[in-house]
Specification:
mainly alpha, 3 helices
């Protein structure tokens, strides 16, 4: 498969991603390969197996499906006994940060 027809964006200097990782690339290529016997991709077969496992009562499979569809539920962030946590942010170069200072 050439670079032009890969199913994902190749990482560049400004586009930092995991797209150039060999295992990820190999997995994506394998998952997008057609499964000729059933007429669908391997990715679809994996998704079908996940749904089948959830239907059979696999709670982890069901949780993965809901997390992927609806997103993970937000986690409460708190101190001891659920008390609010105070966060102080400082800037090493002073205030305002360099990105927000007027040009001279």
């Amino acid at each position: 498969m050439t670079k032009a027809n890969k199913p994902f964006i190749q990482a560049t200097k400004g586009n930092v991603s995991h797209a150039t990782m060999p295992l990820r690339e190999s997995l994506l290529l394998s998952l997008h390969r057609a499964e000729t016997a059933r007429g669908s991709t391997r990715l679809q077969l994996v998704a079908d197996a996940l749904v089948d496992a959830a239907i059979k009562g696999n709670v982890e499979a069901a949780q993965e499906i809901f997390d992927r569809i609806d997103g993970r539920l937000p986690q409460d962030v708190g101190g001891e006994d659920g008390a609010a946590v105070r966060v102080r942010v400082g800037f090493a170069g002073g205030w305002p940060p360099l990105c927000c200072r007027p040009l001279s």
